[in-house]
Structure formats: structure tokens, C-alpha cells
Amino acid sequence: MDFKLSEEQEMIRSNVREFTLKYLEPVAKEIDQNSRYPVEVFDKLAELDMMGISYPTEYGGGGTEFLTSMIVTEELARSCASTGFLHGYSFGLIGHPILTFGNEEQKKKWMPGLAAGKLVGAFSLTEPGAGTDVSAATSTAVKNGNEYILNGTKTFITNAIIADVFVVFAYNDRSAGVKGMSCFLVPKGSPGLIVGKHFEKMGIRASLTSEVVFKDCAVPADCMLGKEGDGFKIAMSALDVGRIGIAAMSTGIAQACLDESISYSKERVQFNKPIAKQQAIQWFIADMAVDIDAARYFYMNAAWIKDQGKSFSLAASKAKLFCSECAVRHASNAVQIQGGYGYMKGSKVERLYRDAKITEIGEGTSEAQRMIIAGSALR
Hints:
Strand 2 (140-144) and strand 3 (147-158) form a beta hairpin. By secondary structure, the chain is an alpha+beta fold. The longest helix is centred in the middle third of the chain and has 37 residues, at 231-267. It has helices at 7-33, 39-47, 66-79, 81-101, 104-115, 231-267, 279-307, 313-343, 348-357, 366-377, and strands at 121-124, 140-144, 147-158, 165-171, 181-187, 193-198, 209-220, 224-225, 269-270, 273-274. The protein is built from 10 helices and 10 strands.
């Protein structure tokens, strides 16, 4: 089997790496410290057609394989996990649902702006009492003539403060269980849509996270994505794609941990020699290198399966589980290698350590992925 990337994909990886070293590395520490959305970075990414690289050309995208987009996500996360996360999030949780379930009018309305990086979306699924258990959501959508009236509270919503469109999930028929959940594209500024204050987070701090409240928020019926009862199916499909994005992001974090560990261990001298010559450090480095190769295979395999039009849900869960735990494990090891210096606020490995943890939580916890994988194995 040939797992070699195409010449175009290798060139894109190289170009993105050059971009990150020039534009992202210099601001990554500052945007983390200030919880600042790096609009200037995303504007430059959009100029390079990297925001919509895998969207169809008819909607302003680059028309590449999904795998190519994930390569971009990995390289961005290698310099800044927040930026890598937001890149993968834009396609997986916003673009993918519209492309897959939207009608032509909805695609033409939203996709060109998303592809050009001019529009930002917010995936609004999680609620205070409904995280992993999506079915426990309580938000409602009541039909009223040619409108739906939305009520409910969403929490931990990425991009809410800056979003142009909210992908919102609510029950139009609670008695039908998850088959009674629907999905809506709610434009910013809709009466009754209230965005709460920004939440301060441990990691990926340049990704802005807020509460969103819908209080008698009336939206036209043509804002529904898909049809009544499609909401749960849309949410699960989006999360499957989003998990591959988290896997690619995690691989970028792990690669950065290896980069920093190699650089530091060659420069740090203890007992009259660089610590890179100490066997204990070499074992850390070796384990990182092996796991990162495996992680890269996991996410690329899942993305490739999606590109073939095959069912990729299980592959996405496996990739998300392995890659996220790889990132957390080796971020810890990178701090261990640097010792007190790595533990200091402001060091890159300290940031990587904080950023890595969310990968085991977002888009379905590690425990949820194990449930999915075990369920498949035990059938």
C-alpha cells in the first residue's frame, strides 16, 4: 500500500509551514496570553485560499481532498493549537453540515463567505445539562406559521462572539426523542439571540468560547438545515468530521512537543554533556517519534476514507482517541524534559501542555470514543 502524499499535498504542507513560521509563531504566545482571536492570521490564510481549501470550487473553495485540509490543520496546530483547532472546526462543524445537508440556496448564501474566510460560524449543540449525552438537550423550536421560535441555552460555544451564523440544534418534538431534533442556520443579529460573555479557558485561549441564549428567537422556516427530525443525524455527522480535525490538531501539538524536546535536549547541558545523550531523554524522544508517526497515520487514514465516500465514523473515533491521548502524553513528557523551565508560564511546552488537554474532551470525550469503538468491536 502506498501512503505517500501527492506532490501537491507536500507542497501545501511546506507552504503552510513557511506561513506559520513567518506569521503565526511570532504571535502565538501573545494571542494565548490575551485570549485574542488572530483575525490578521486568518485574513492571510484566506488570501492563500487555505480557509476553504477543500470546499467545492463552485462555492469558492479550492476543491482539494479533505485530507489536504487536515494537513493544513496539523501544520497550523504545530505552531498554535488555537489556530489549528479553528481551521478544522470551520470545515468540520460549520462547512460540512451546510454542504452535506443544506439546499442550494443555503449553500450559495453561506459557503462562499466561509470559503473566503469572510464569514465565521458557531456550532451550537452543547448545553449546560447536555454534553456527551446530546439527547439530554432541552432547547426547543416551536413552529409558528412560517417561523420557528427557538428557546434554550447553549454553552461552551466556539466563535459565538464573532459568529455570522449559528448552527443550532433544538427539539421540535421532544416526545420523538432524538428523531424530534432539528437543525437551524441562525444569522447573527436575529432578535432573541443573546451571546454571553467570553469564558476564560485553560488552553486554546485564542479560540473564543461563550454561552448563547435563545429567548423567543424567531427564525424563518427556510433557515432549517435538512428537514424536521434531521438534527441529531446532522450533529453526529458533523462531529465525525470534527473528530478528524481534532486528531490532526493533536498530531500537530505532538509534533511541536517533539520539535521543542529535540531542540532543548541538544542545548541543555547537565553532567558535562547535552541531555540528548542521556538514555532517559532518548527514550522520551523515541516514544514521541513513534507515536507521532502512528498518530499521523490514524488521522490521514480517517480523512482518506472520508474522501473515498465510505463510512468513516469508526476510523474518526479511533483517530481522535489515539491522537488526542498521544498529544496529552507527549506534552507532559515535553514539560518533563525541560523541567523547571518547561513548567514556567510562557514557555511553549507549557502552552502545549494546556492546549493538549481539550483534545481529549472536545468533539466527544475519550470515554465516548471508547464506547463507540467497543460497540463496533462487540457487535
